[in-house]
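TOPIC: backbone geometry
CONTENTS: sequence, structure tokens:
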Amino acid sequence: MTTQKSIDVYVDLALDHLSDVTTALDAMCAPARSHPYTTVVSLIVLGAFPAIIISPLKLLALPFKALGKFVLYHLGFRPGGVERDSFASHYQSINYGGYIPANSPFAHLQSYGTEDDEEAGSWFASIVSWSSFAGAGYVLGRAWGWWN
């Protein structure tokens, strides 16, 4: 059973750490302090349209994904499934026969070979959106004096 005094100690400790976090954020975001509304509008636009950040990152990753798709394509993992008389089909017939176990390396390669890139990055878009909205709330809170 915890006493009120020990709970107060934990609350004070948490508030001290929160103060350290806000101090660090303020040090990194001096322009947000001097132009809070411009920063908030920018963060809201970024939160609503995370592709602003994600599209350039996808372009940076494109050569690596293309190389992986190229290798898988030539091994026999095609968009329509495993290609007949390919390395992948021979490997499948020798090691698995007609049954491919779920979560096996072969199943993952087969899935990646048929995967369309449209859904890739949706979890990252969610993180960018929520972080942007949280940042906008933080900047507005500082500008409106909700905390020091």
Observations:
- The chain has a mean pLDDT of 79.
